[in-house]
Amino acid sequence: MRAALAPSPALTVRQAASRIVAKQVRDLLGYEKAARRGDDPEAVHQMRVQTRRLRAAASLFAGVLRAPRRARPSRLRWLARALSRVRDLDVIVALLEDRHLPKLDDQEAARLENLLAALKERRWRAQRKLTARLEGKRYATLKAALRDWARQPRFAGRGREDAMAVRYLTDVIHRDADRVSARRGMTERVPTATDLHRLRIAVKRLRYALDFHAETCGVAFDAERRLTRQLQDCLGEIHDHDLLLGWFEEAGRTDAPAHGRVAGPPVEAELFAGAWRSLPERLAADRAALLRRFLRLRRAWRAHTEPAGSVVPIEDPRFVSLEVAPVQLRLAASGKTVASLRIVR
């Protein structure tokens, strides 16, 4: 396996984009064999993540990097849909089987086992479709295009590709962080399931930009990466619970708490129909605990992006950039430095 190149703050946008694309393609194809076999849920998950990261890279470098026609985001979405169908069912089965099945009484546990068997059957069918897709001509064309893209990325030739990557990626991070802060999920006192779902997508986009910065420009925004990862994980778990609670509601459970429907894999409502003694309530209680955790993380986000005691009011809060000793603390608004303090340890 080829060793990863060390990050460097001196990279140009061209060099950083080339490294990012090559890494994502290499990782995506590295999980293909195990994902095609269907015996490794983690391989399906990682392959789906790499399709998303490649689409994020294409979006992040839009106007600079040209994706080949046969590897455009629409082609990657076609692959991601098949991977998502399998992965979403893996997550739901694991959630029910590992967290809730051991806590149910014998009668309800037996019913849940029947439900899990039906979900696993649907997972098996989804895996067959995924395997067929990975063995088909359309995927072979996509794979060849991705390899060509990784070997020789194409650029728009407008001069921006020769700019410094650290500045380019930092500007993207600030923009995406502002978008996260503006989402209803970050501003509403009681955000809806739809608000949180849309926030999760925005947080994920920011997470990828932070990762790309760290992979190519060196360790920076370390605290922000940790906080963004925690937010993404928490919002992902809330999303999984909202899917399950939505299926119970769709099956006619009038006493199941209404959190709203969010998009997920199609599952027949009759699998969830009928009386359940405690499972919906357990799911709702777990969801409430996750929401409380999210609200704590949201407060941490606000404290981090809106520093107290700033020298002048900041209408457009940015991350506080922390560099290695000696430490430079810088507050920025609308691209201008408004306060600066140098600390020598």
Catalogue the unreliable spans. Answer: 253-258, 309-318, 320-345
Strand order of the largest sheet: 1-2
Compute the gyration radius: what is it? 22 Å
Q: Main β-sheet: number of strands, strand sense, barrel status? A: 2 strands, antiparallel
Helix-strand topology string = HHHEHHHEHHHHHEE
The number of E-state strands comes to 4
Structural class: mainly alpha
CATH topology of the largest domain: CHAD domain
CATH class of the largest domain: Mainly Alpha
Query: Could you say how many structural domains there are in total?
Result: 3
Name the overall outline: flat
Q: Cα distance, first to last residue?
A: 40 Å
DSSP helix fraction: 55-70%
Quick one: CATH superfamily of the largest domain? CHAD domain
Description of the molecule:
This protein is mostly helical and 345 residues long. The chain has three domains: 1-159, CHAD domain (Alpha solenoid), CATH 1.40.20; 164-305; 307-345, no CATH class. 63% of the residues lie in helices and 6% in strands. The protein has helices spanning 13-30, 32-37, 41-60, 73-100, 106-134, 137-151, 165-182, 184-187, 193-217, 222-250, 279-305; strands at residues 65-66, 154-155, 327-333, 336-343. The strands form two sheets. Strands 1-2 form a two-stranded antiparallel sheet. The protein has a two-stranded antiparallel ribbon with strand order 3-4. Helix 3 (41-60) packs across helix 9 (193-217) and helix 9 (193-217) runs antiparallel to helix 10. The chain starts with 12 loop residues before the first helix and ends with a strand.
